[in-house]
Every structure is written in structure tokens, then in C-alpha cells.
Specification:
By secondary structure, the chain is an all-alpha fold. It is built from eight helices and two strands, in the order αββααααααα. β1 and β2 form a beta hairpin. The model has no long low-confidence stretch (mean pLDDT about 90). One of its GO terms (cellular component) is plasma membrane. This is Inner membrane-spanning protein YciB.
Length: about 200
């Protein structure tokens, strides 16, 4: 199976989220009437986001033949909590979804540390080869990051406007994760290991 081009995977990653943001911003002036029901802009954007994410995930799976556990967990929680928001016409369920996701990821990473299992390395070692100590440090830092993001999500959606929360979800969280990865560049360099290539083994 040919590996899809990076821009294709990036489009599948960002496309549903940017569509969610665009739908919300275009309709934030008032409720949206659909099938005899009035939806708030956030709930309507969630209604559009769920099938968009499901389709993007399906396309990714067909192109690569695999899905990361985080991608599957995210899809399931989006369908469950997003579906509850649409069904009950209550945006709060979708707003707490990032909190649940980040707490789940933090718990899994914390459990892997306690049981001395390198689950993070099993997922990312092909793209980021590091020694065992490096993976333990990164796992601990990522667990703390996810706990901080869960707390931040709760603060933003409970204390700030809905528009602020949408900006935070769409752009704030990815920026925080990007800055986190850049801040750990030294860790990646210090614990990187050489992976034998096909040429080296001949």
C-alpha cells in the first residue's frame, strides 16, 4: 500500500475541525432551524462535525490501513458526546468531550508509567525513535500536559463565552500541543537512537 502524501493526511486531520469552526462562525448570529427543530450554532456545527470526522477517519483508514488508538478514541467520544449534544440539543455534552478525552489519555499514560509499559513508544517509535528513558520522560510530561488541557477546557467553557471556547478548541489546544512538542526538542535529541536502515543491514 502506497503511503499517502503528507498534505492528504493533514487535510484529513484538520478538515473536519476547520469545517466545524466555519459552520459555527457563519451561524453564530442566531439559531439554525432544521427538520422543525431550532439548534444553537454550536450544536448545529457539532451536527456537521460528527459525520465529517467519521468520513475523514474512514478515508484515513482506507489510505493507510491503520488508525492510531487516539484517533479511534477521539472518534468514539465525538460520536457519543456530540451525538448527545445534538439529540438533547444541549451543547454542554460536546464541550466536556475534550475534558473526557484528555483525562482518558492522561490516565492511560499514567497507567503505562506505573506498569512500566511503553505504550507511547509503541505508537510513536517509528516516527520518533528514542531510548526507554526518553519515552518514560515524554510519557510523564504528556500525562501532565493532558491533565492541564483537561483543566483548561473546563475553565474556558464554564467561565467564558461560547465563541471563546470554539476558538480555544479549534486553535488554542493545537497551538499548546505544538509548543509542547517544540519545547521537548532537547529531550528528543538527547534520547534519540539510530535505527538501522535497509542499506546498513546489507
Amino acid at each position: 500500500m502506497n503511503e499517502p502524501k503528507p498534505w492528504v493526511l493533514q487535510s484529513l486531520e484538520w478538515g473536519p475541525l476547520l469545517l466545524f469552526f466555519a459552520v459555527f462562525m457563519l451561524n453564530r448570529g442566531g439559531d439554525v432551524s432544521l427538520w422543525g427543530q431550532n439548534y444553537t450554532p454550536l450544536v448545529f456545527a457539532t451536527l456537521v462535525f460528527i459525520p465529517a470526522l467519521a468520513l475523514a477517519t474512514l478515508i484515513r483508514w482506507r489510505l493507510t490501513g491503520k488508525l492510531a488508538p487516539m484517533q479511534l478514541a477521539t472518534l468514539v467520544l465525538v460520536v457519543v458526546f456530540g451525538g448527545l449534544s445534538v439529540w438533547l440539543n444541549d451543547p454542554r455534552f460536546f464541550k466536556i468531550k475534550p475534558t473526557i478525552i484528555y483525562l482518558l489519555f492522561a490516565s492511560l499514560l499514567g497507567f503505562s508509567l506505573m506498569t512500566r509499559r511503553n505504550w507511547l513508544g509503541a505508537i510513536l517509535s517509528e516516527a520518533l525513535p528514542m531510548d526507554a528513558q526518553g519515552w518514560r520522560k515524554l510519557t510523564a510530561r504528556m500525562a501532565l500536559l493532558f491533565l492541564a488541557l483537561a483543566a483548561a477546557n473546563e475553565i474556558v467553557w464554564r467561565a467564558m463565552s461560547e465563541t471563546t471556547w470554539v476558538y480555544f478548541k479549534t486553535f488554542g489546544m493545537p497551538v499548546v500541543i505544538f509548543v509542547f512538542l517544540m519545547a521537548n526538542a532537547g529531550l528528543f535529541r538527547a534520547h534519540s537512537i539510530q535505527v538501522p536502515t535497509d542499506d546498513a543491514t546489507k
